[in-house]
From TrEMBL:
The keyword tRNA processing does not apply. Keywords: Cobalamin biosynthesis, Lyase, Methyltransferase, S-adenosyl-L-methionine, Transferase. One of its GO terms (molecular function) is sirohydrochlorin ferrochelatase activity. NCBIfam families: cobJ_cbiH (TIGR01466). This is Siroheme synthase. PANTHER family: COBALT-FACTOR III C(17)-METHYLTRANSFERASE-RELATED. Residues 66-143 form the Cobalamin synthesis G N-terminal domain. Its EC number is 4.99.1.4. SUPFAM superfamilies: CbiG N-terminal domain-like (SSF159672), Tetrapyrrole methylase (SSF53790). It holds the Pfam family TP_methylase. The keyword Lyase applies. Pathway: Cofactor biosynthesis; adenosylcobalamin biosynthesis. Residues 346-559 form the Tetrapyrrole methylase domain.
Length: 598
């Protein structure tokens, strides 16, 4: 079974492909069920052309969708002509190193054609899909055809020392030479590689650095774990200097033992030190995951004590330097980093934008894709979908914000990747401030919370989305006000309204009215009318970016609170806000506030 870190997307264009798609899906669904020890194993979904056929995920344009999947490294199984797939992906094909597997499969399941991603296991996928469909895959890779395996695509946990060298090696084999195998390479046992003990060529599986010998294909098992204590990089002047120093110490100790940097499987630290940004940065420099263990290496305790606490397999301690705070462990086989300690938890607070997918920033989409747990008000969690079956949703009522923020930290400090969703921008009358308040108030009782990798991703706020539809009413100085007196006294709202009106600021009203707050909007409008003239322009945007959204322009004199509900954004113009007809039949207008005063 191909070991994919990202679930493949099965892409179909019409209902005729649905049966075949479901059969292929069952191959990869079984795959993730079998990996039950990985609760976050990705699920394989069927992506269907909107309006033609319904499945798990809808897309609107095949070319754009395939490019998007490809750019994210998602393996693609497209149930359509190979030519269509090639044409769609043509602009993306410059970099051979990072391409995901891409296959074309005939709608009726009669042909399976691996197209791209030879180094990412496309042939393995072609074989398993073909087996499920009871056909022969159209494998065209010569080495693979001859030897029954792609020598240059070792399984997960193993890395080729040098791809250029690998290609020469395979062409020597194709030219008729045999090879020895040195080291443990169980995946090569059942292949048709021409083997001979006396061969000039050798496949060497070793954590040691390649010595440059042309007749050896060196494959590194990721079998080394580096542990660091607080002593590592302790004298550095900044977190990034510290990260560089930690990475340098580790590289030096690897070099001292002639170990290849590619043999490193993970960086291990005590969870007591995870608030230290340098650790995550050092792991990123070394291109390995950061893993954490609960055990503290007390002051002066050797870093090897972390290895002892976290490693569940036999290993040798090669290096243990309490002064530099670095220890190295070498296991006899590749180590799955997921089995070492636990991950550093993440909490990302995102804004979905006003509603439509195009107005969600890509960083928010990425965070959602990577999330194991999603929290938020039910309506927003639904808007964030479709989510995968393996993603846990913790929906709640809108009012329990602090409780939800604390819950997010609890989950993240267990090592999960948590996303908290808000609509619009998370920092505008939404969850980001609640999350920071929870951290500010409670971190002293829960030290693990400070260790969570916390990020806030901005979004398109309702005022921006409504303003853009109307034109540019926020084109000059403006303010955003929430008219809700749930969390602040009404007197403060009145004071701010009066000052904002006198300052001639354009005003964007959030939470303008609700069943529990029926009179406040009228009161607010009365205050504004004392200062601003009745012909001041007002924009009402309701459900902007959502189905059935509407936009209306009227004057302050005409505005009635019955025109407004809690799904409405009210933008009250300044003395300079103006409008003009677009010249279209429907009489619609652009509203804008000029950048100047005369
Ligand atoms: N964080 C959100 C605002 C939350 S407060 C943001 O940045 O947009 C909720 C208020 O926002 C609603 O009462 C309404 O006034 C406004 N709002 C949110 N989404 C909206 C939309 N799609 N259309 C119009 N107004 C919206």
């Amino acid at each position: 079974m191909a070991r994919l870190t990202t679930a493949p997307a099965i892409v179909i264009l019409g209902a005729g492909a649905l049966d075949t798609a479901r059969r292929i899906q069952s191959v990869y669904v079984q795959n993730s069920a079998a990996g039950a020890e990985h609760p976050a194993a990705p699920a394989c979904q069927i992506h269907a052309l909107q309006g033609r056929v319904e499945a798990d995920v809808a897309y609107t344009e095949l070319g754009a969708h395939l490019c998007d999947l490809y750019a994210r490294g998602t393996p693609i199984i497209a149930l359509c002509a190979a030519g269509i797939v090639i044409r769609c992906l043509a602009p993306m094909l410059s970099n051979k190193g990072v391409e995901p597997p891409v296959l074309a499969v005939a709608e009726d399941g009669s042909a399976v054609v691996p197209l791209l991603g030879g180094l990412a296991g496309v042939n393995v996928m072609a074989r398993e899909i073909a087996a499920a469909l009871a056909v022969t895959p159209a494998i065209t890779t010569s080495g693979e055809l001859r030897f029954g395996t792609c020598v240059l695509n070792p399984p997960d946990g193993y890395t080729l020392a040098d791809i250029g060298q690998g290609k020469r090696f395979v062409s020597d084999l194709l030219a008729g030479e045999s090879t020895r195998i040195e080291g443990h390479a169980p995946w090569l046992d059942d292949t048709r590689l021409p083997r001979s003990e006396s061969a000039r060529l050798a496949i060497r599986v070793t954590p040691c650095v390649w010595d440059g010998r042309e007749d050896e294909l060196v494959i590194h098992p990721r079998s080394v774990v580096a542990a660091v204590t607080a002593a590592a990089g302790a004298d550095a002047s900044s977190p990034s200097a510290k990260a560089t120093q930690i990475a340098a110490h580790i590289r030096e100790s690897l070099a001292a033992h002639r170990l290849a940097p590619l043999s490193l499987a993970a960086l291990l630290a005590s969870s007591a030190h995870t608030s230290d940004a340098a650790l995550a940065e050092a792991a990123a420099i070394l291109k390995v995951p950061l893993r954490l263990t609960q055990t503290r290496a007390e002051d002066g305790a050797p870093p090897a004590s972390l290895l002892h606490a976290a490693l569940r397999m036999p290993y040798d301690t090669l290096h243990d330097d309490p002064q530099k705070g670095v220890a190295l462990a070498l296991a006899s086989l590749a180590i799955d980093p997921d089995t070492i300690g636990r991950a550093r938890g993440r909490l990302t607070v995102i804004g979905l934008g006003p509603g439509s997918a195009e107005l969600m920033v890509p960083a928010a989409r990425t965070a959602l894709n990577e999330a194991t747990d999603i929290l938020g008000y039910d309506t927003y969690v639904k808007m964030a979908g479709p989510l995968r079956a393996d993603q846990r949703v913790h929906g709640t009522d809108n009012r329990e914000e602090m409780q939800r923020a604390r819950h997010a930290f609890e989950l993240a400090s267990e090592g999960r990747s948590v996303v908290m969703v808000s609509s619009g921008d998370p920092g505008v009358f939404a969850m980001a401030a609640a999350v920071l308040e929870a951290l500010d108030d409670d971190a002293s009782q829960h030290p693990a919370w400070s260790a969570v990798d916390l990020n806030i991703v901005p979004g398109v706020s309702a005022a921006m989305a409504a303003a853009a539809q109307a034109g540019a009413p926020l084109g000059h100085d403006f303010c955003m006000l929430s008219l809700s007196d749930n969390l602040k006294p009404w007197s403060i709202i009145e004071k701010r309204l009066r000052h904002a009106a006198e300052a001639d600021l354009v005003m964007a009203f959030y939470n303008p009215i609700s069943r529990a707050r029926p009179w406040q909007l009228d009161k607010a409008l009365d205050l504004v009318r004392e200062v601003r003239s009745a012909d001041t322009l007002v924009v009402l945007g309701r459900d902007i970016g959502r189905p059935g959204g509407t936009l209306r322009t009227l004057t302050l004199g005409e505005l009635r609170s019955s025109d407004v509900d809690m799904r409405t954004m009210v933008i009250v113009g300044s003395s300079t806000t103006r409008k003009f007809g677009k010249g279209t039949q429907d009489g619609s207008e652009w509203v804008y506030t000029p950048r100047w005063y005369r």
